[in-house]
TrEMBL record:
GO terms for cellular component: plasma membrane. PROSITE patterns: HIS_KIN, NA_SOLUT_SYMP_3, RESPONSE_REGULATORY. This is histidine kinase. GO terms for molecular function: histidine phosphotransfer kinase activity; phosphorelay sensor kinase activity; transmembrane transporter activity.
């Protein structure tokens, strides 16, 4: 590939950027979609210029890892300082800020001087940085042309340099896409999209070159390591030790630059649309910085070893592919470097053009037209745009001149640090303005001036003066202590020397200047905006008026913004204020402030204030004071709110004002003191409900008092009392409505009055002491009885808790026994001994039933069971009961009759079913002949669900005994076996559901149980019916790969025996460590996971989740547990895990495994279906 081919590709690349930017502008309306945060985050990579692409390698070739310092700062800002970034963006949006100079001017009373000086510093400081890009592009072009045999001779005059053509092309691009609108706060969609694309291109280009150089072009990595170990220059760079001072200086400079460089402030703050974009940038931008620096050091070492000093280290990224004759790789490197340079130049020129036009050029136009009649003043919208276009051309011309007339021996990194140090002069005024309320415009001016002069002397001058200049060698006027690169004999690197002395002078004069005078009213107002106060003004403040009319204000604004935009803005203002603005009406303070903010978007805050103050001066009689009119009008609001706040803070009562939506709008100091509320609660706009919730969380008030407190604050006019537990104070709350719909509430400390009432009550109680003495003996007896009763209840509760806690340990060995017995039964088949195995299994099943009932009682007594209410018809429930119990009744030659009913009820379906099942089972058990009747009788708003039987009956004096646990009557013990727990469970469920339960019985004739249930009028939800799968397919499990996890060795052994007998391939594990080893040594996932919930310091749900995540598939899973709590069941359901309670029924397990087996063969979603 010839050199001119690469140059041609570069121009085609620039045309591609034009196309991308055009597409971004045409599709601006779609920019609120999901990709926007990523485009925003990638546009921040405009920070990575040719300094990053070329210069970092050059610096690394000399100083090892020192280049990382300029990236550590930005990473810290976007990770640890993200909260500060969000605050800066919010301020910029609220104040319509357009640049870093505008930000500083807005903080310091919208100072024209601060804005102008900041603009000059930014412009002068950015010139070397832009020149750096031109130097990099010119160097890369020269290297390409030299390599392909067409050297570029030194030009006879500056216009013969290829970098001039590049500067011209970049100027055209910046003008086309950065100067189309006067509103500097309007988002440059096309430009930002082009910058994001360039960020991707330069990252891909650098990674491609790095991979090629490290792994392919110059041998394998091991060979390169051997060669580097034998290269003296490479080892020197490798072992270079950067001082801690240099690390701190570079990190601090880069942290300041990532926010305060004009281009970075523009893309980070002005172009930001939402905090979501900042959240995305907080991780994506640091990742980008890490990726683009991965291969810097390897490329530097390879370059030093391969090319040495024959090529500048700044060009190693391009020179290495050329040296390896990798032409396409060289093209990629060239385009990557060009992309890095063009992105920076374009955005920097756009940002600087806005600052220079708004704060330096436009004020001159405004002052020159001040004495003209409004009708004679021209439309300035075109003047603003043309000024910005000319400014872009001038900036690039100055950068080109700096590049041409500075030493060619200066490295890219050195030039970049000069610019970083210039921008760092904003730090004292910027950070001080955000945290020091008393800082003012004089301090900012003095600090910026001092810092800028020291920077120019110590850092800028050495880059422009000849290397042997007397001032560099001997100091100013021959004073050695004034040598620029070693000021006052400082023994440090030139960069460290310049940064320390310039920032020291800056900070010192900033503090002294701020302390030399008091802040003006406007500076105090702006300080309160940048450092928020904890109160707001009332809506009824006096409005300051001038003689300027609405028509005159519109005409003035239209010259800068255009008539159409001004009309739209005024219509929005009318809608917000709910009043009409007639052309002849004089303007008031709110309208002036609105106009000032709107003008600020086009000409900056300082120039906007100048425009309006000149307008007021021309119309008002007191022309001498017109320049301060806006300050006085703005200060009126602040003064009134300060006076109001001071007055109310002196009151003993607490006062709050809530708006019509019951959100906090105002409060005084006493309110916060009485309720002891923290800063996060005391915020304007917080709902009254959140304040009450905070008091509940602090346990100052009870949860059930929440609604009454809110009612007392928002609706009731009667005094209400609030007892504060944390402070032991009693407050009286009195609220009254306001005309606008809000409320004013007062809070009075009445603790002393309440305590006085208590003292009077105690005195009255003493008069009754004699009566109390006479009844002391009776009281003592009652207390003893109460203690005895409490002890009995505690003992009963302890028993219940023991049963609940021991359930898991009891069921574990029983579960293992069931597994072994089932496996044995299936293995023996129909042999002679199989009957013994079946008997064992039947006995274990009976033990399971007993333990199940005991555990159910314990869960009911401890409150572990909670009703899950739903609306349903009784007929379906009753039909299920009939289906379940008809075979059992037939075995005893009994007839079970169920009367259908369409009644709808609202209760827990499963609990009601369990209650009816126990009653029907009891009736069948104790009936010798006849039958049972199950039906419903309507009784007004209730139904009586009845179970009638023809059984042995119950004696009248024993009707209450049958509901006690473990209580059996003599007649029943002779009739059937049992534990006496069935009716105890029925009674507990009925009380839990709050359904009255009654019983009537006649011995020898039968018993009737009646349950009274309220009827529901709610509609019955449409129930999805799921057809049961038939048993056409056998429960075959051959080849099913099952993973079993349990900490109990007996359980695992029994499970393995049972599942192996069914044809499964079983793997057993006991803990998480074994599971991790299993996953690490296995490439395919098991078909099914069967896990116990309670493991040692672990649980089965986490084990299942880990296995699924490792194999990246939703493996069907079964959770075995004796814990029947709602929490475990809900968590299993959330994780899509099938739950089987212990003791395990092997038939249920086999059915589930068979379902998973066939679902796997069919490719259906087995887990979901199994639920």
């Amino acid at each position: 590939m010839q050199g001119w081919g690469i140059i041609g590709a570069a121009f085609l690349y620039l045309l591609l950027l034009f196309a991308v930017a055009s597409i971004g502008d045409r599709r601006a309306s779609r920019w609120n979609s999901a990709p926007r945060p990523y485009v925003y985050a990638l546009s921040l990579a405009v920070y990575c210029t040719s300094w990053t692409f070329f210069g970092s390698v050059g610096l690394s070739a000399q100083r090892g890892l020192e280049f990382l310092g300029i990236y550590i700062g930005p990473i810290l800002v976007f990770t640890l300082g993200n909260r500060l970034l969000r605050h800066i963006v919010r301020l910029a949006k609220a104040e319509r800020i357009t640049s870093i100079a505008d930000f500083l001017a807005a903080r310091y009373g919208k100072s024209f001087g601060v804005a102008s000086l900041a603009t000059c510093i930014a412009a002068v400081g950015s010139i070397p940085y832009i020149a750096l890009q031109l130097k990099a592009v010119a160097g890369s072009v020269g290297l390409v042309m030299d390599h392909y045999g067409r050297a570029v001779a030194p030009p006879a005059f500056i216009f013969g340099d290829i970098s001039l053509a590049v500067a011209a092309v970049l100027a055209v691009f910046a003008i086309l896409f950065g100067t189309r609108h006067t509103d500097a706060t309007e988002h440059q969609n096309g430009l930002i999209l082009a910058i994001a694309v360039e960020s991707v291109i330069k990252l891909c280009a650098f990674l491609t070159v790095g991979l090629a150089c490290t792994f392919f072009l110059f041998g394998s990595p091991s060979q390169l390591i051997d060669q580097i170990s034998q290269s003296t220059d490479a080892l020197k760079a490798f072992h270079y030790q950067t001082s801690i001072g240099t690390w701190i200086i570079q990190t601090a400079l880069s942290a300041a630059a990532i926010i305060m460089l004009p281009r970075q402030f523009h893309v980070t703050v002005v172009e930001s649309r939402s905090e979501k974009e900042l959240r995305t940038a907080s991780w994506l931008f640091p990742v980008y910085l890490v990726l683009i620096n991965i291969f810097v050091f390897p490329i530097a070492l390879i370059g030093v070893m391969t090319l040495g000093t024959t090529v500048s280290g700044d060009l190693y990224v391009l020179a290495l592919p050329l040296a390896a004759e990798a032409h396409w790789m060289a093209l990629i490197a060239f385009l990557g470097g060009l992309s890095a340079a063009t992105a920076m130049v374009i955005v920097a020129c756009v940002a600087l053009s806005i600052m220079i036009s708004n704060h330096l050029v436009l004020p001159l136009f405004i002052r020159s037209m001040a004495k003209r009649h409004p009708a004679e003043q021209p439309d300035l919208t075109k003047v603003i745009l043309n000024t910005r276009r000319v400014t872009i051309i001038a900036i690039l011309a100055l950068a080109f001149a700096y590049y041409r007339f500075t030493s060619n021996n200066i490295h890219l990194a050195s030039i970049g640090f000069v610019s970083f140090a210039a921008i760092a002069q904003f730090v004292p005024a910027f950070i001080g303005g955000l945290f020091w309320r008393n800082a003012n415009g004089r301090g900012a001016m003095m600090g910026l001036s001092a810092g800028f002069l020291v920077w120019a002397y110590t850092l800028l001058l050495p880059t422009m003066a000849p290397e042997d200049a007397a001032i560099l060698r001997d100091g100013f006027l021959g004073f050695t202590a004034l040598r620029p690169e070693a000021l006052f004999g400082t023994d440090a690197l030139p960069l460290t020397n310049g940064v320390i002395w310039s920032l020291t002078a800056n900070t010192l004069f900033y503090i002294l200047g701020s302390l030399s005078r008091a802040s003006t009213p406007l500076e105090r107002i702006q300080a309160s905006i940048f450092l928020p106060r904890y109160f707001i003004a009332t809506p009824t403040l006096r409005r300051f008026r001038t003689t300027v009319t609405v028509a005159e204000l519109k005409a003035t604004m239209a010259r800068y913004l255009g008539s159409e935009r001004v009309e739209r803005a005024f219509l929005r203002f009318e809608g917000h204020e709910q009043r009409r603005l007639d052309p002849g009406m004089t303007v008031d303070t709110p309208l002036i402030r609105h106009a000032e903010q709107l003008l600020g978007t086009a000409v900056g805050t300082a120039s906007a204030r100048l425009v309006l103050s000149l307008l007021l001066q021309r119309n008002d009689a007191s022309g001498r004071d017109a320049r301060q009119l806006l300050d006085d009008a703005s200060a009126a609001l602040q003064q009134n709110r300060d006076l109001l706040q001071i007055a109310l803070d002196q009151m003993e009562q607490g006062i709050t004002v809530f708006d019509k939506d019951f959100r906090l709008a105002f409060w005084n100091r006493q309110f916060r003191t009485l309720l002891n509320l923290p800063d996060e609660v005391m915020q304007v706009g917080i709902p009254v409900s959140e304040i009450v919730e905070h008091l509940i969380r602090r346990e100052d008030i009870a949860f059930n008092a929440r609604n009454s407190i809110i009612h007392s604050l928002t609706a009731s006019r009667k005094p209400a009392r609030l007892k504060m537990k944390s402070t032991a104070k009693t407050l009286e709350i009195q609220s009254n409505p306001m005309p606008d719909g809000g409320i004013v509430a007062t809070y009075t400390d009445i603790t002393a009055a309440v305590e006085a009432d208590l003292m009077r009550q105690k005195a009255a109680e003493m008069l009754e002491q004699r009566v109390a003495d006479r009844t002391a003996e009776l009281t003592h007896v009652n207390k003893e009885l109460a203690r005895a009763q409490a002890a009995a209840e505690e003992a009963n509760l302890g028993k219940t808790r023991f049963l609940a806690a021991a359930g898991h340990d009891i069921l574990q060995p029983l579960n293992a026994a069931r597994l072994y017995s089932t496996a044995l039964s299936e293995k023996l088949g129909r042999s002679e001994t199989s009957e013994f195995a079946r008997n064992i299994d039947s006995s274990l099943e009976a033990v399971e039933a007993i333990l199940g009932m005991v555990l159910d009682i314990s869960r009911l007594d401890t409150g572990a069971l909670k009703p899950e209410v739903s609306v349903f018809r009784l007929d379906r429930l009753l039909s299920q009961i009939a289906t379940d119990f008809t075979p059992l009744a037939r075995k005893k030659a009994l007839k079970l009759r169920v009367v259908p009913s369409s009644i709808v009820v609202k209760t827990d379906r499963n609990m009601l079913r369990r209650l009816i099942q126990n009653l029907v089972s009891n009736s069948i058990k104790y009936s010798r002949s006849g039958g049972m009747l199950l039906g419903v009788r309507r009784r007004g708003a209730f139904v009586e669900l009845q179970v009638l039987d023809t059984g042995i009956g119950i004696a009248q004096h024993k009707l209450k005994l049958v509901f006690r646990e473990f209580t059996r009557l003599d007649e029943g013990m002779r009739e059937a076996e049992g534990l006496g727990l069935g009716l105890s469970i029925v009674d507990r469920i009925a009380r839990l559901l709050e359904f009255p339960l009654s019983v009537r019985s006649v011995q020898g004739k039968g018993t009737t149980f009646t349950l009274r249930i309220p009827v529901s009028n709610e509609p019955v939800p449409v129930e999805e019916t799921r057809s049961r799968r038939g048993h056409a397919r056998a429960l075959e499990l051959t080849g099913l790969d099952v993973l079993c996890i349990d900490n109990d060795a007996d359980i695992l052994s029994g499970m393995e025996t049972l599942l192996s007998g069914w044809g499964c391939n079983v793997t057993t594990l006991r803990n998480g460590a074994a599971l991790k080893a299993f996953c690490a040594n296995r490439s395919t996932a098991p078909d099914v996971i069967v896990a116990d919930y309670h493991l040692i310091h672990e649980n089965g749900i986490d084990m299942i989740g880990f296995t699924r995540e490792h194999f990246e598939t939703e493996i069907p899973a079964i959770l075995l547990t004796a814990d029947r709590s709602k929490e475990v069941r809900q968590r299993a359901e959330d994780e899509n895990i099938t739950l089987l309670n212990k003791p395990l029924r092997p038939a249920a397990l086999r059915s589930l495994l068979s379902h998973f087996y066939h679902a796997r063969q069919d490719g259906s979603p087995s887990q979901t279906a199994a639920q």
